[in-house]
Design a protein that fits this description.
By secondary structure, the protein is α/β, with parallel strands linked by helices. Helix content is about 35%, strand content about 20%. The radius of gyration is 22 Å and the shape is globular.
């Protein structure tokens, strides 16, 4: 077996490969008179750049990594390919949904999607197994069949999900309208909207097993139910209620299809483009200074580096003091760090009998207790092990990598057990660090073998990532996957908007609205609308009100196993 212990869930350290996206930064390649500069090429940054480019703006996207896409990029090694952050996306079978309309808009309908099995998520809660199936009626039936005595509570819960969809739209709009209107919108939100997930659900039922099953996707926001906001829970449940989908060609196809839209208006996406700081003049953002000293100027600076990186690493100290950030920062925190395990196997999906369903493995239904116990002893049993099968989800994988298959495993972890190596360089952290990673890999592989015993002895290659890997490649200081923690306190922050207190500076991505691929994309859309002001009315109408647009080549972007 080949072992390599220094890759990242957020950004892998591979050599040259065919899944790299974007052009390498050179000063000689820079144009002049950029209408906007985006720091970071995650999906939020790419979405904002593409939306502005559709309006004829020349946008420059600067990515410090070797490939564009942020958490949506892919990497290949030893004859295998993995997507580092895209595990599944919802609503891609609904052309009229905002996520699908937005994806089609920023790619001109050229991104193809493949559906997962009807049973897209499977929860293991001790000896209980819950299988979520696509469609609202199937979703309801899953829980009613498992908990027939709780039918009324289940129906009331689904009713809240319906109401939450409308409430979330109001919350999103509150991010971009004038503050006095924003305050009015928040006053009419349901009182349960931003309570903890557990408090809302325990008001419907006292059945802890049912609550544990309903919250089986808590890993999609990284916060267990007693600490997470019901906003996050409801958005995630609604997003996937009609099933899961995966980009045909792998996760890197997302950036690959968006970048031409940016280039069409004279913009570009540069990799190896490390921004040292945002240039401020008279309390206004007017450009960026690169690590090589080059200053690139623009009247609009958009940060996809996250709130904390933007204010604590990219802005001058005096500017940050004037903004009042220090007081605001106390009310938000980073999300939980994570471990990633990437696995390559010889053999096809059919030969290995791999599912097209995500596995969520829990000790039992007491998610918060299990997380607390783990954080007290981070070398113990994981409170959650998520297993995904990307080569099964992508119908093009067998053609691109014949005779092979891949698996990805993600689990929460503690930053503290890796902290003693935080000042060391990637690839040079020593034997003790590698031994720790090997121990983690063995622990996670055993969880895999418990569910799929036929895979024991079949693994050809694996590699492990830690929070330090994520920090090294994606600049998330504690290896967090979801940016800011998705607690009620985070969603109460009225200052947390795409338009910052600093003139000319905007935030996009996860921290602008919410987590995940689509959450970051909608954050990118809201950032665009904040920049455009009244000029964004046409785009807002197209995304939020108009029916789906038919693209000439939309059949190539259809949903289905045959769309390769």
């Amino acid at each position: 077996m080949n072992n390599n212990f220094a890759t990242s869930t957020a950004a892998s350290d591979v050599g040259p490969n065919d899944v790299r996206v974007g052009r390498r930064y050179r000063v000689s390649r820079l144009d002049t008179n950029y209408d906007a500069i985006v720091i970071g090429s995650g999906i939020g940054g790419l979405t904002t750049a593409a939306c502005l480019s559709k309006e004829g703006k020349k946008v420059l996207v600067l990515e410090q990594h070797y490939t564009a896409g942020g958490y949506t990029h892919s990497y290949s090694r030893n004859g295998y390919e993995w997507g580092v952050g895209v595990h599944y996306v919802g609503e891609m079978n609904l052309p009229e949904s905002l996520p699908r309309k937005l994806f089609d808009y920023v790619t001109d309908g050229k991104l193809a999607w493949s559906s997962m099995d009807e049973n897209y998520d499977r929860f293991y809660l001790d000896k209980r197994e819950i299988n979520l199936r696509a469609g609202k009626e199937n979703f309801r039936k899953t829980f009613v069949d498992a908990f027939p005595e709780e039918e009324d509570a289940i129906d009331r819960y689904i009713g809240l999900l319906d109401k939450a969809t409308i409430a979330m739209q109001m919350y999103a709009v509150s991010k971009i309208v004038p503050r006095f209107i924003s305050s009015a919108l928040k006053m009419i939100l349901p009182r349960w909207f931003n309570k903890t997930t557990y408090s809302v659900l325990s008001g419907l039922t006292k059945n802890e097993a049912l609550i544990g099953a309903i919250t089986g996707q808590w890993g999609d926001c990284g916060v267990p139910p007693k600490k997470s906001s019901f906003i996050s829970h409801s958005v995630i449940a609604n997003h996937y209620i009609n099933g899961g989908f995966y980009p045909v060609g792998g996760a890197s196809e997302i950036a690959r299809k968006i970048i031409p839209i940016i280039q069409r208006s004279g913009g570009d996406v540069f990799t190896y483009a490390d921004v040292k700081e945002i240039v401020i003049e008279k309390n206004r953002a007017v450009g960026v200074r690169m690590v090589d000293g080059t200053v690139i100027r623009s009247t609009t600076i958009i940060s996809n580096a996250g709130l904390i990186n933007t204010f604590e690493k990219l802005l001058p100290e005096e500017c940050v003091k004037r903004s009042g950030y220090a007081k605001q920062r106390k009310r938000v925190d980073q999300s939980m760090p994570h471990i990633g395990l990437y696995i390559g196997l010889k053999g096809t999906t059919e030969e290995l009998n791999l599912p097209n369903t995500n596995f969520w493995i829990y000790q039992d239904e007491h998610h918060d207790d299990n997380v607390a116990r783990f954080l007290a002893n981070p070398t113990g049993e994981y409170p959650l092990v998520y297993i995904s099968f990307p080569s099964t989800k992508d119908p093009s994988y067998a053609r691109r990598y014949p005779g092979t298959s891949t698996i990805e495993i993600v689990a929460p972890t503690s930053y503290e057990i890796f902290e003693s190596w935080k000042d060391t360089a990637w690839g040079k952290r020593g034997e003790e660090y590698d031994a720790l990673k090997e121990k983690i890999a063995a622990q996670l592989l055993e969880e895999l073998y418990k569910k799929l015993p036929q895979l024991r002895g079949k693994i050809d290659y694996y590699e492990v990532s830690t929070p330090l890997s994520t920090n090294w490649f994606s600049r998330y200081g504690r290896g967090e996957l979801y940016g800011l923690d998705h607690t009620p306190e985070r969603f109460n922050q009225t200052w947390l908007r795409p338009k910052t207190q600093i003139a000319g500076l905007y935030l996009t991505g996860q921290d602008a609205l919410g987590c995940g691929v689509v959450g970051a994309m909608i954050g990118g859309l809201l950032c665009t609308l904040s920049i455009q002001g009244l000029k964004g009315a046409t785009l807002a109408k197209r995304m939020f009100a108009d029916p789906a647009v038919s693209y000439d080549d939309l059949p190539a972007a259809a949903v289905g196993k045959s769309a390769i």
